[in-house]
Amino acid sequence: MIAAAAPPRAVIFDLDGTLADSRLDFAAIRREADVPDGIGLLEHIDGLDCPDARDRVAAIVDRHEMAGAEAATWIHGAEQVLHGLHHRGLPTAIVTRNSRAAAMRTMQRLLMPQMPLKAREDAPPKPDPSALLALAKDWELPPAEIAFVGDFHYDIEAAQRAGMIPMLFTAGVQPDTPAVGYLLLPVFERLLDWIDRGRVDAGA
To answer: Which of 188, 194, 137, 180 is nearest to 162 (CA)?
Structure first.
């Protein structure tokens, strides 16, 4: 339960599927790039021995990501929660497995507030926690006081490995299994409610 935990002092977000709907068809990307099931796209690229093969698959992924960025729309409630966090003075950032070019194009298209961005060129991709820990260091905040919100198991694992508050955004869908080791965020409005409730309890 969100209400049972102390609210964060900063929030980091995943991009695709969390803040933005880029309509990426991952099944189509896998078919075109011949990526087997059970392995991430970036992990598959990293494991290819042939430089030409790596370049070919990377180019396919880049093309799909940029097309998705050009078509991106806000996830319901995401725009309001970002502006609400900025209004409340909480630091925010984005950590994504996307390329920096695609992520920046998405942010520009949606007129997102300015905030730090960590893309796959900046740090090892999630579930590696390096990008999350770098932001905690920049903000001079303990990782335990920062929430990381994402929609995929890579996001939850990265937050857990960083010692942050893992939050799974479900867009109103009830998961099939109980949440163990992370918090559920069915709708974005609950994040602001949680933070405001914590401030009232603290007398802020």
So the answer is: 137
Please say if the pLDDT value at position 84 is more than 50. Answer: yes
* Domains defined along the chain, listed by start: 2-21+73-201 (3.40.50.1000), 26-71 (no CATH)
Which residues lie across from 148 on neighbouring strands? Answer: 12, 166
Q: What pLDDT score was predicted for residue 139?
A: 99
- The predicted model scores a pTM of 0.90
Tokens of 128: 């590696």
Three-state secondary structure readout of 32-86 = HHCCCCCCCHHHHHHHCCCHHHHHHHHHHHHHHHHHHHHHCEECCCHHHHHHHHH
Q: Token digits for 107? A: 């942010």
Cβ neighbors of 124 (< 8 A, separation 6 or more) are: 130, 131
pLDDT tens per residue, range 11-60:
999 999 999 999 888 888 899 988 888 888 888 888 888 898 889 988 99
Taking each continuous run of H as one helix and of E as one strand, the counts in the chain are 8, 8
| Cis bond before residue 178 (omega within 30° of 0) | no
Residue 122 phi, psi dihedral angles, 5° rounding: -95, -25
